[in-house]
Write a structure and sequence with these properties.
Elements: H1 6-12, E1 16-19, E2 31-35, E3 38-41, H2 43-62, E4 67-70, H3 74-87, E5 91-92, H4 104-123, H5 131-148, E6 160-163, H6 170-178, E7 183-187, E8 198-201, H7 207-225, H8 231-234
Parallel strand pairs: 4-5, 4-6, 6-7, 7-8
Antiparallel strand pairs: 1-3, 2-3
Helix pairs in contact: 2-7, 3-7, 4-5
Length: 267
């Protein structure tokens, strides 16, 4: 991924916050102003946050650390899975099961059960069972795959978690804190910056903004590990080059002259 600029952030709608009546006062240092009833995030602060996140993630990955991508809201599900798969990291994009971190041993038994059912289905053993039992097992397998497929290769708790929408993923954030696992997260204007160790002030509802952030973190992982799992590489093409963000000059007052598109704001 090329260096992220303020123009890139603008095009993704990363600067649009929530309605002014829905905000967390702790986010005041990261807010530039408002346009109508919509807060505008300070994109200089966004780039500063991205720079810190990039350095931390790159360093973590370079030491063999695992970064768990978490985003279960509809706008984030596809981007989270794609970015995590591209950089070879685990992810949760359907539902956060209580205890995924704090009771990880039990979660691993469910992953083992999923793999057992997959093996039964693949080698034909499941087909030999009565129809009613087959139906029940297929339903069980489908549910396990939906919730656990992204962490099947995660053998221990991660070294960090990256969260899209810390309010929605509050259980994941709390579990990480209990285990002293660093939390990286996007911070919309209704979030609490104290919930994260490394925050990126940005819109967490717009699909383009979410995709930009997940790809950015994936690039930081790749920069640390030196390897990406991509369709382009499998076809013999080079992966895009990653580079940390850096603040650039811009008149943020221009942001207040533009109305927020409906798709870029949370109602």
């Amino acid at each position: 991924m090329a260096k992220v600029s303020i123009q890139t952030l603008l095009e993704a709608g990363a600067h649009f916050g929530h309605q002014t009546r829905r905000w967390n006062p702790k986010m005041k240092p990261f807010i530039f102003g408002s346009r109508g009833d919509i807060y505008i995030l300070d994109l200089k602060q966004t780039l500063i946050g991205m720079d810190r996140v990039y350095s931390f993630v790159q360093q973590t990955a370079s030491k063999g650390g695992t970064v768990l991508f978490v985003g279960t809201k509809k706008q984030a599900q596809e981007s989270v899975a794609e970015a995590a798969n591209r950089c070879g990291m685990p992810y949760v994009n359907a539902r956060w099961l209580g205890g995924m971190l704090t009771n990880f041993a039990t979660i691993r038994t469910r992953v083992n059960r999923m793999e057992e059912l997959e093996a039964m289905d693949a080698d034909g053993r499941m087909a030999l069972l009565p129809k009613k039992e087959q139906i029940l097992l297929h339903k069980e397998l489908a549910k396990l795959q939906t919730n656990l497929n992204g962490i099947r290769n995660m053998k221990s708790t991660p070294d960090a978690i990256f969260v899209i929408d810390t309010n929605r993923e509050d259980i994941a954030v709390r579990e990480a804190h209990r285990l002293n696992i660093p939390v990286i997260g996007t911070l919309d204007t209704n979030c609490d910056p104290d919930d994260v160790d490394y925050g990126i002030p940005s819109n967490d509802d717009a699909i383009r903004s979410v995709k930009l952030m997940t790809e950015f973190v994936a690039d930081a992982v790749i920069a640390g590990t030196g390897a990406a799992v991509t369709a382009e590489e499998m076809a013999g093409e080079a992966a895009p080059e990653a580079a940390p963000a850096a603040p650039e000059a811009i008149d943020l007052a221009d942001l207040l002259k533009k109305d927020a598109p409906a798709e870029e704001t949370a109602e």
